[in-house]
Amino acid sequence: MMSFGDHQLYLLFLLLVKFHESVGVDVIFTQEPSNPSYFNKGSDANLVWNYADPHNKIAAIAYSVLVNGEFKTMIFNNSHGVQEHSSIPPSYKGRVKIEGRATLVIKNINTGDNTKFRCEMWKSPSGQVESTVQLIVAEALLMNLSLGGKYFTEGSNATLSCKASGKPPPYVSWIRNGVLESSGKEAASLEFNNINRTDAGQYTCQANNSMEVTSINTTIVVHYTFPIVLVLEWQDL
Prior knowledge:
Layout lengths: L3 H20 L4 E4 L5 E4 L4 E8 L5 E10 L2 E9 L2 E4 L11 E4 L2 E5 L9 E8 L4 E19 L4 E3 L4 E10 L3 E6 L2 E7 L1 E6 L8 E8 L4 E11 L14
Parallel strand pairs: 2-10, 11-17
Antiparallel strand pairs: 1-3, 3-8, 4-5, 4-9, 5-6, 7-8, 9-10, 10-12, 12-15, 13-14, 13-16, 16-17
């Protein structure tokens, strides 16, 4: 059992540990962009970083881009303010800027921007912390239906297939009267074994990739025959 003095020493030890832990907090990222990050062609990409620097150790923040297997510094922010770096690739001159604490803005995104971008925080007197993100230029959704026909005979088998492509890859769904019937990544199908007249109607194929939602409607018709009923009337001769 601890004596009173030992207990006091133990509490003092815990306080000292807590103090050293708080003093030891260093430069860290508190927010990073989604990886990968998708942006539409022609839009401005905002890659949002944020950080904690409790002891004001950051001397500079620099942003670089991967070109031909090598990261090239584009722009940086230090005690002299924001400046373009001498090694900035020509295609990024005038297209990049820094907003807020550490947000990199890339103007007028194009397919050449399908690459990696890096944020580096340089500490004083030495050391650095970095974070890298893959930027992907989104591609419009393209859809293709394969129906195997539009008209079916009751009792036959039928398959409705729908495929979609794009960046990011879409999820495809078949929907009827607001009810999800089938779904899958980049493709979905509906199979009817022994199709019934109640299966006739409008079906919607929808593709969704978080950047865009598009859909195509199709209608299937089920032919069926009515049973022939013979009614015989007897007459007395």
